[in-house]
């Protein structure tokens, strides 16, 4: 198993690149006109997880984006997924 | 290093991809039935698709020395119309005797509805009736956690099910422990944007071990990479995983699971 130093040598530039890209995305959304939506709010709500000391930040971020509702709709009005749960968007619950 | 691609949708890929796979050491590809990117207009469309999977695609792969196997079902995205789904399911048994059909898959859930769940359970029963392995798709993005829980709850009601013959695919950090703790195999899908990156898949191998795990590209018509397995193997090598450990995850593990079907000769 590689040491922390070896992992930094292997992956720091890649992680740095991704962090800067994320920062630029936040800047870009803020700079452009119109309203953002629940996805942007979900993204910003997940960011503090990165600064915690827990050993499973990736899991926590995934859970933060997840649908935690318990009801099961009879059918779905659409097929796709959007990356963040919208609690206001209720599927039709028939049964 | 030779490897097995246990989940690739080759009907969506070019012949050039077969050549690249062969050059990279791919010995066998397993293709679960899936959504075409649009809803089929009739069950007859699935009849043609199942013929493509069982007759045409094995020949195309064989030209590059690659064995091609498949799994059959109606995918979760088209399973929300239960009448239509049962029409398609009625076609499946006539293909189960084909020499390259491994089992039922990729069944599962998409938007976690009761309709999808009923068709999922009908597929599980079909697999039990024919003593076949099962390959399960878990939902995308925000729906994955809830869908994985629903799938596990549903499977728990099938007392005759051999959990070692079921693989639950597309796990990520928030679902992998649920699947492994329940005794099932788990699949990690290497995608450029969604699902797992090679780095994260290797993290999960380091945390959860390699006993009941495989990796796949799930390459299809979307943003995906048919060479993601050999690329991940290279990343494992950079992270000091041994050649034996790499071979186990990209060759021995899929071979062990898939060999539960007597038709798999890999």
Q: Biggest sheet of chain B, in brief?
A: 8 strands, parallel
Please provide the count of β strands of chain A. 0
Strand content of chain A: under 5%
- CATH class designation of chain B: Alpha Beta
Report the count of strand segments of chain B: 8
User: Which structural class do the helices and strands of chain A define?
Assistant: mainly alpha
* Greatest contact between two chains: A-B, 32 and 29 residues
| SS element count, helices of chain A | 3
Taken together, the total number of domains of chain B comes to 1
The CATH fourth-level homologous superfamily of chain B: Metal-dependent hydrolases
- Indicate the mean pLDDT of chain B: 97
> End-to-end span of chain B in angstroms?
15 Å
Would you give the CATH topology of chain B? TIM Barrel
Could you say which overall geometry of chain B the principal axes of the C-alpha atoms support? globular
Helix content of chain B: 40-55%
CATH architecture field of chain B: Alpha-Beta Barrel
Distance between the termini of chain A: 51 Å
**N-to-C order of helices and strands of chain A:** HHH
List keywords for this structure.
heterodimer, A: 95 residues, mainly alpha, 2 domains, 3 helices, 48% helix, extended, disordered C terminus, B: 266 residues, alpha/beta, TIM Barrel, 42% helix, globular
Helices and strands, with pairings:
The complex is a heterodimer of chains A (95) and B (266).
Chain A: H1 4-31, H2 38-46, H3 57-65
Helix pairs in contact in A: 2-3
Chain B: E1 3-5, H1 15-23, E2 26-32, H2 43-62, E3 67-72, H3 82-91, E4 101-108, H4 114-129, E5 134-137, H5 144-155, E6 166-168, H6 176-181, E7 185-189, H7 198-208, E8 213-216, H8 228-238, H9 243-258
Parallel strand pairs in B: 1-2, 2-3, 3-4, 4-5, 5-6, 6-7, 7-8
Helix pairs in contact in B: 2-3, 3-4, 4-5, 7-8
């Amino acid at each position: 198993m590689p040491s922390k130093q070896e992992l930094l040598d292997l992956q720091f530039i890649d992680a740095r690149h991704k962090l800067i890209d994320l920062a630029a995305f936040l800047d870009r959304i803020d700079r452009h006109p119109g309203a953002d939506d629940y996805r942007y709010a979900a993204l910003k709500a997940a960011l503090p997880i990165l600064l915690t000391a827990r050993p499973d930040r990736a899991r926590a971020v995934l859970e933060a984006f997840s649908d935690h509702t318990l009801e099961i709709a009879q059918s779905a009005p659409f097929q796709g997924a959007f990356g963040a749960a919208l609690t206001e968007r209720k599927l039709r619950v028939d049964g | 290093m030779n490897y097995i691609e246990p989940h690739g949708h080759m009907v969506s890929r070019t012949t050039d991809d077969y050549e690249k796979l062969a050059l990279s050491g791919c010995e066998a590809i397993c293709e679960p039935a899936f959504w075409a990117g649009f809803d089929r207009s009739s069950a007859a469309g699935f009849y043609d698709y199942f013929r493509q999977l069982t007759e045409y695609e094995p020949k195309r792969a064989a030209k590059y020395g690659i064995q091609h196997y498949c799994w059959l079902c109606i995918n979760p995205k088209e399973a929300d119309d239960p009448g239509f789904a049962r029409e398609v399911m009625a076609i499946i048994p006539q293909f189960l005797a084909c020499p390259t059909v491994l089992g039922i898959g990729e069944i599962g859930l998409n938007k976690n509805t009761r309709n999808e769940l009923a068709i999922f359970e009908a597929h599980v029963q079909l697999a039990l009736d024919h003593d076949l392995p099962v390959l399960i798709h878990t939902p995308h993005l925000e729906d994955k956690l809830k869908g994985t829980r629903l799938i596990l709850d549903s499977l728990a009601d099938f007392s005759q099910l051999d959990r070692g013959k079921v693989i639950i695919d597309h796990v990520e950090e928030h679902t992998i422990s649920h699947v492994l703790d329940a005794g099932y195999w788990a699949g990690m899908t290497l995608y450029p944007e969604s699902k797992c990156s090679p780095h994260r898949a290797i993290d999960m191998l380091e945390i959860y071990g390699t006993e009941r795990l495989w990796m796949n590209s799930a390459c299809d018509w979307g943003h995906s990479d048919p060479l993601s397995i050999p690329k991940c193997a290279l990343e494992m090598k950079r992270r000091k995983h041994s050649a034996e450990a790499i071979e186990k995850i990209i060759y021995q593990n899929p071979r062990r699971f898939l060999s539960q079907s007597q038709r798999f000769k890999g």
